[in-house]
Amino acid sequence: MNFDKELNARNLSCPLPIVKTKKALNDMTSNQVLKVISTDSGSVKDMAAFAEQTGNPLLAQEEVNGEFVFYMKKK
Amino acid sequence: MAKKMAIIATKGTLDMAYPPFILASTAAALGYDVQVFFTFYGLQLLRKDLSDVKISPLANPAMPMPVSMPVMVQMLPGMESMATMMMKQKLAKHGVASLEELRDLCLEADVKFIACQMTVDLFEFDKSEFIEQCEYGGAATFMGFAGETDICLFI
User: Fold this and answer.
1) Does domain A5-73 have CATH number 3.30.110.40?
2) Is residue A14 annotated as part of the catalytic site, yes or no?
3) Closest Cα of chain B to A50: distance in Å?
4) In sequence order, what are the residues at sequence separation of 6 or more whose Cβ sits closer than 8 angstroms to the Cβ of residue B143?
5) Rounded to the nearest 5°, which phi and psi values hold at A59?
């Protein structure tokens, strides 16, 4: 999937993947896509909850070699 | 209108310092207006230097220990520093942010910190030892915000 910005959230624990995702989105414009890579298994549910509560759609997510990859579109 | 969350932070130990900062930074990331009221020992979390924030195994029976330790051993000199060092190492190893980092993230996200003026007076704290980004107020100041919140927590 195409993306405009990548956030490396590897080896970070709650709440850093979410807080850093929010910070990354702040620097982006509407409809741009942010790719987030996390190793925190808790971030799977947290990213979904973040997307739902902030209205930034989670376009896709996958697990690749034990890492969690998310594609989020800025609303 | 944005949702609001208020937290009353009353504890000044390493383990109890995390929940207010974690919840405040997360709520701010989710778009909440957040205020944290620091009172009694919670005020220690507003010091510029957080290196005195410690954890004690004493009176903390739920704290996981690498080896079980009788209370008589836990109270020996140096045990608190050792427990604090071990906990900090564990936190770092698991990628948990330091208190300073979480506090900075809160401030960056416009979380408002209110320091309890009564506690400052009670313990004769020197305001110059606290970060500049906090306001000083009392219970009524805090209630003005807390009364309108969606989430209000006492930690």
Assistant:
1) yes
2) yes
3) 6
4) none
5) -75, -40
